[in-house]
Write a structure and sequence with these properties.
9 helices, binds adenosine-5-diphosphoribose, globular, 2 domains, 41% helix
Length: 316
């Protein structure tokens, strides 16, 4: 049985805990700064267990000592977007929260694999990589899988086929500069260009890039959480079951795709140790140019990050 901790018991955190419990991977700790919030949600989820049939323990807490010995820690703590905000607008607040969270992960779960979800995703993942010093295998961000499932759902609706037959790939930063790859998106292995005209594919690409904002503007308060939690749990599944699935993930790059010292969405093989391998796929000149723009956007965010990375005093 694995021990999985979820930091942040808001929309993304709590729905992730629900999906993790239903997947029966192991015991779960849900932590939040707000007193009572994680405890109340954990109780509610435990009371659903006899009906759904999961025999795992779910503990809600405000105390980091409870994450002790976790195999996997998922960071969802932070503020979410409001209408009109970009993910980058969240940077200064969420970076401070991340710093505090990482100090506690280092202390209580030093052997864990850390999956980041808090936005702006690639920048926060970079901060977590630096703050935890866990290495590139054990720190990565969930974003490309969410963008890919969004693209896949739009393609399935447009083609009028089962979502099960769609394989979609979106690379780059989790923001306006993301790079959906229609050429690598298929219906049962057949390129989508066989099913859809160029204009339709372009429209779906644009909708994918704006998919998060579309939901934010409809919800008015908060951002997406059903698809994000599904993507997180798919990545956790690949780790827990050591499946070797190749999924897009925001990973610290050291020369892959020609980029260094930043986190960016690329295909990666996931297994029991976290990121087993970064997969370098062939990109057209146009796709590579789009990935380079995405890299520049993420790097400029990292430059804005007041990391104090070399000040270790914060590490409790
Ligand atoms: N430690 C622990 N939890 C914290 C901290 C902290 N220092 N600061 C804030 N939180 C908690 C909040 O109390 C809240 O319960 O994080 C939770 C965030 O929940 P929501 O506001 O519902 O946000 P959510 O939709 O879950 O999104 C969380 O994931 O997808 C990203 O952009 C999204 O950055 C956002 C994050």
């Amino acid at each position: 049985m694995k021990k999985i901790s979820v930091i942040g018991a808001g929309n993304v955190g709590a729905s992730t805990v629900q999906r993790l419990a239903e997947s029966k991977f192991g015991d779960i700790v849900m932590l939040d700064v707000v007193p009572g919030l994680p405890q109340g949600k954990a109780l509610d989820l435990m009371q659903a267990a006899p009906l759904i049939g999961y025999d795992v323990n779910i503990k809600g807490t405000n105390n980091y000592a409870d994450i002790e010995g976790s195999d996997i820690v998922i960071i969802t703590a932070g503020i979410a977007r409001k209408p009109g905000m970009t993910r980058d607008d969240l940077l200064s607040i969420n970076a401070k929260i991340t710093k505090e969270v990482c100090g506690n992960i280092r202390q209580y779960a030093p052997k864990s694999i850390v999956v980041t979800v808090t936005n702006p995703l690639d920048i926060i993942t970079y901060a977590v990589y630096k703050y935890t010093e866990f290495g590139k295998k054990r720190v990565f961000g969930m974003s490309g899988l969410l963008d890919s499932t969004r693209f896949a759902s739009f393609v399935a609706q447009e083609v009028g086929c089962s979502v099960k037959d769609i394989n979609a790939m979106v690379l780059g930063g989790h923001g306006d500069s993301m790079v959906p790859l229609p050429q690598y998106t298929t219906v049962s292995g057949v390129p989508i260009s066989e099913f859809l005209p160029h204009e339709t594919i372009d429209r779906l690409v644009t909708r994918t890039i704006n998919a998060g904002a579309e939901i934010v503007s409809l919800l008015k308060e908060g951002s997406a959480f059903y698809a994000p939690s599904a993507a997180i749990v798919a990545m956790v599944d690949a780790i827990v079951n050591d499946s070797g699935r190749v999924l897009p993930a925001s990973v610290y790059l050291e020369g892959e795709y020609g980029f260094n010292d930043l986190c960016l969405g690329v295909p990666a093989k996931l297994g029991k140790n976290g990121i087993e391998k970064v997969i370098e796929i062939n990109l057209t000149q146009e796709q590579m140019a789009a990935l380079s723009s995405s890299e520049k956007a993420v790097r400029s965010g990292i430059e804005k990050l007041d990391m104090g990375i070399h000040e270790k005093a914060f590490l409790v």
